[in-house]
Amino acid sequence: MSFGDPNNPYAQQTPQGIPPQGVPPQYGYPQQPPQPQAYGMPGGVPELAHWGLRVGADLLDTLIILGPMYALGFVDLAAAADPQTAEPGMFFTVGVVYAIAMGFFQLFKEGSTGQSIGKKVFGISLRREADGRTLGFGMAFVRKLAHILDSLPCHLGWLWPLWDPKKQTFADKVCGTVVIRTPQG
């Protein structure tokens, strides 16, 4: 078989994307396959959220969820005849129901948009590290449970973003997530 054999139509063909020998790569043949965009975002790697923004967003979310419950509990306490023997009343019960409902709402928002109310105020968003998409409710819930890992070794996991190159907590590493800054606009 020779390369000039007219009866062999496959003789001089090269596989797609591999340059023939002796042809430099600048003639349209890529040297390496194109790499996917980092975090699935156009324009490369987005700016990762620093620790202060993350703490501020978490504190605001906690205040939104637990603040009204405690305020309503204090209303019950103030209305009691004897504060020493007061038991949880109707206002505190309403506060507990509010806290549970708001906690699930925050998880839903974080899973579907990447932003809880606190994250939206602070201009940050939770994303999958692999492709930049939002997590969904189930994975957002799993990530909240994984925050137990951040608390176990003397709360070291909560401080880990201070020196980690990807600014991730232990829960972020386990769940494959990153917290990025969102464009202000």
Description:
The chain has 185 residues and is mostly helical. The chain has one domain. Helix content is 45%, strand content 5%. It contains six helices and two strands; from the N terminus they run αααβαααβ. A two-stranded antiparallel sheet has the order 1-2. Helix 1 packs antiparallel against helix 2 and helix 2 crosses helix 4. The mean pLDDT is 83. InterPro entries: Pra-immunoreactive (IPR051791), RDD (IPR010432). This is RDD family protein. Keywords: Cell membrane, Membrane, Transmembrane, Transmembrane helix.
Throw out a few tags for this protein:
single chain; 185 residues; mainly alpha; two-stranded antiparallel sheet; 6 helices; 45% helix; 5% strand; elongated; Pra-immunoreactive; RDD family protein; transmembrane helix; cell membrane; RDD
The average pLDDT value, as a whole number, equals 83
Query: Quaternary state, please?
Result: single chain
List segments where confidence is low: pLDDT < 50 over at least 5 consecutive residues: none
The value of Rg in angstroms is 27 Å
Number of domains: 1
Structural class: mainly alpha
Number of helices: 6
Instruction: Count the beta strands.
Output: 2
Strand order in the sheet with the most strands = 1-2
* Biggest sheet character: 2 strands, antiparallel
- The general outline is elongated
> Could you state the order of secondary-structure elements as H and E?
HHHEHHHE
Q: State the share of residues found in helices, binned by percent.
A: 40-55%
Distance between the termini: 65 Å
Strand content: 5-15%
Subcellular location: Cell membrane
Organism: Streptomyces racemochromogenes
Protein name: RDD family protein
Membrane topology: Multi-pass membrane protein
